[in-house]
Amino acid sequence: MNNNSSINTDVFKNILVTYVKPTNKETAFNMGLAMAKTNHSKLSVIEFSQDESPQFVFFKTKKDKTKADKHKAKILNLLKKFEAKAHEENISLKTSFKSTESLVDSIVEYVDSNKIDLLIVDHPHLSNSEQQHFNDVVSAIHEEVKCNVLTLK
């Protein structure tokens, strides 16, 4: 009997790693990289940054813009590091940074439009004040996406 005929090695052809909070942890990326290597998959890493309310309700101050620019530069440097590591492993990697008002809607839209088979979400360890919000975000992602979801803690 040929056991290989019943094994589907193309389970996860498109893997997305995303973060619900900028934690700069490589755990989710490393898991995605290992799974992409095992399954000969395409890997995407997208940092979705939720737009923060400006200091003044109607417009962003210079301080708000500077803070956002520093955050974006930090994330882009991290994504370049991921690209280099994936290149070393000979894995196809697509990286992106997107600012959004709704993390859940943006993630669901990306998963649907790019036919993602596996979504890897890094669930951050946060203070009590932030914990409930991000628990709600992760729960909503699990409910709304139409693919397998792996949440790392």
| Count of domains | 1
Number of helical runs?
4
Tell me what portion of residues adopts beta-strand conformation: 15-25%
Unreliably modeled segments:
1-8
Strand arrangement within the widest β-sheet reads 3-2-1-4-5
Strand and helix order: EHEHEHEHE
Number-wise, the strands total 5
Q: Which fold name fills CATH's third level, the topology?
A: Rossmann fold
Supply the CATH superfamily name: HUPs
Span between N and C termini? Answer: 40 Å
Helix content percent band: 40-55%
Average pLDDT confidence is 82
Classify the secondary structure makeup into a structural class: alpha/beta
Radius of gyration: 17 Å
The biggest beta sheet is recorded as: 5 strands, parallel
What is the correct CATH architecture?
3-Layer(aba) Sandwich
- CATH top level assignment: Alpha Beta
Domain UspA: 12-152
Pfam family, one: Usp
Organism: Nitrosopumilus adriaticus
InterPro entries: Rossmann-like_a/b/a_fold, UspA
Describe the 3D structure.
The protein has a single domain (11-52, 59-152), classed as Rossmann fold, CATH 3.40.50.620. Helices cover 44% and strands 22% of the residues. The protein contains four helices and five strands; from the N terminus they run E-H-E-H-E-H-E-H-E. It has a five-stranded parallel beta sheet with strand order 3-2-1-4-5, with helices on both faces. Helix 1 links the parallel strand 1 (14-19) and strand 2. Helix 3 packs parallel to helix 4 (128-144). It is globular and about 50 Å long. Mean pLDDT is 82; it is low at 1-8.
